[in-house]
Amino acid sequence: MKDTFNIDEIIKLVREQEPDRHDLIHALQKCKGGIWSSNGYYRFVDSKNANQTGADWQHDECIVLEQVNKGDIVIDLLKDGRIGGIEFIDLIDK
């Protein structure tokens, strides 16, 4: 199932759960042109050769946002401040 999602809802969750993470909010606001790379993962940056020298994808941290009714969300933040992708835990294996 490849539902669309509202980035503004994710930004709202960040503001509620990680209010000091202005960097994350700004990065989410800049997200454009992603694709579903699996049932539960929406990718903004190609993860080919992830974390290898010269690769576009250089992972820095994962931020977990909790949602009671819709399932948790994991945001992959890259070292250059971009969002690599967003994982929707409840959509995995559907």
Please give a structural write-up.
Strand 1 (35-38) and strand 2 form a beta hairpin. This protein has one domain (7-91). The protein is built from 2 helices and 5 strands, in the order H-H-E-E-E-E-E. The mean pLDDT is 91. Helix 1 packs antiparallel against helix 2. 20% of the residues lie in helices and 28% in strands. The protein is α+β, with helices and mostly antiparallel strands. It has a 5-stranded antiparallel sheet with strand order 1-2-5-4-3, with helices on one face.
SSE blueprint:
Elements: H1 7-17, H2 22-29, E1 35-38, E2 41-43, E3 59-65, E4 73-78, E5 83-88
Antiparallel strand pairs: 1-2, 2-5, 3-4, 4-5
Helix pairs in contact: 1-2
Quick structural summary:
The protein is an alpha+beta fold and 94 residues long. 20% of the residues lie in helices and 28% in strands. The mean pLDDT is 91.
Total DSSP helices: 2
User: Gap between N and C termini, in Å?
Assistant: 6 Å
User: What count of domains describes the coordinates?
Assistant: 1
In which order are the strands of the major sheet placed?
A: 1-2-5-4-3
User: What fraction, in percent, of the residue positions are helical?
Assistant: 10-25%
Rg calculated over all Cα atoms: 13 Å
What's the story with the biggest beta sheet? Answer: 5 strands, antiparallel
Mean pLDDT across all amino acids? 91
Low-confidence residue ranges: none
Morphology: globular
**Secondary structure: number of strands:** 5
Helix and strand succession? HHEEEEE
The SS-based structural class is: alpha+beta
Strand content: 25-35%
